[in-house]
Amino acid sequence: MAVKERVGTVVSDKMEKTVVVAVESRFPHPIYQKTVSRTTRYKAHDEDNTCRVGDRVRITETRPMSRQKRWAIAEVLSHSPKAAAEEASKAEAQEEKQ
What we know:
By secondary structure, this protein is α+β, with helices and mostly antiparallel strands. The protein has one helix and five strands, in the order E-E-E-E-E-H. A hairpin with a 6-residue loop joins strand 2 (18-28) and strand 3 (35-45).
């Protein structure tokens, strides 16, 4: 059986070792043929708390880790510009202290 994978955007990182990932699926409406987008939110396991809001991530299906958490972060595809700026400012602050 193939492992399910999804690509989405992190919309919440307020929990410990858990992020909420919004995955958008686009498909044509069965009657009107207009493109319809539907968003599904998955809770995914983030062991190192590395993901921030706005990051683009790939999640994979895994064993149940809690009542609602059945996905895990496979890789971070791209960091959000805001998160990258925060990391840079933290690095500069560390260099100034030394």
